[in-house]
Amino acid sequence: MTTGNTLTNGAVLAELRISQWNAKLIDKSVADRVAREYRAGEHAGKYHKDLMAGSSFHAKIKKYAQGIRNYHIEHTIPWTDRGPRLCTLAVLPEYKATMTAMIQQLEVMIEEFLYDTTSPNFYETQKRLANQATVALGELYREADYPTLERVRTLYKVSLSFDPVPQAGDFRIDAVQGDLEFLRSQHAEAMDSRVRQVQEDIWGRLHKRLDMVRQKVVDMDKYYEAQANNEKLPRVLLQDDYLDTLRDMCGLLGKLNVTGDAKLDQARQDLLRTFEGVDNDDLKEDAGCRQQVAKQLEQINNDYFC
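^ thats the sequence. predicted structure below, dont judge the formating
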């Protein structure tokens, strides 16, 4: 089975689309006033006004939507410059369940934002939001800046769709033989390029995390050595879930390895084994443990990335 067919049979294309009202507006009158005050040119600067200043709901929606995008990116692999991303079948069940739950929660948050729960109608909601903005914006508030709630509702959209990975050379069109062969060849080359991109993305994630962990362990060793010598260095924090997150990442990379790259699998297994039986307290309290871990991480880097 070719690598292209492995992708076709072992993954799907997942496309996430989220659009939302950004609640930003360039206030030209403020920019003109500042330009006059400071004797600046007409295009010296812009003033971006936050129409939802004072509303925590809008900020929470924006933050939660970004969390959905981050999860989508973390659990999928680039396929095209924009649009759908590759989701392996090993990841798909957990990915689909988590994304569905997160999207449903986002939709609930949007409804709570657009409707006043004490009086669920457009007029009351618009009046409530306008009152919040009036307080926060002061003299910058202008009612004419705000779209209707019906318009705002159309700006909030979220969808997740899945499509099969196209098979290399699968052109079901009527074309002269020469053109058809050209299209098949071009598509096969594009598929090979995307396969390389998939592998490079996974290797890149592993290398990035390895570098971060190596630096963390080295910094910790320097910090605790300085403490022992009554010297001062910036404190190095190690989150309680740091090693659990590392192990989860290694597990995820195994599921994303749809091409079955044996070297990649060996590299992530080596990283996992480095922290086998090691916990946060070991890294904080045991200099010998830190130095042994640092040595093994350096060896992994030399084996796979040098």
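Residues 177-305 form one domain.
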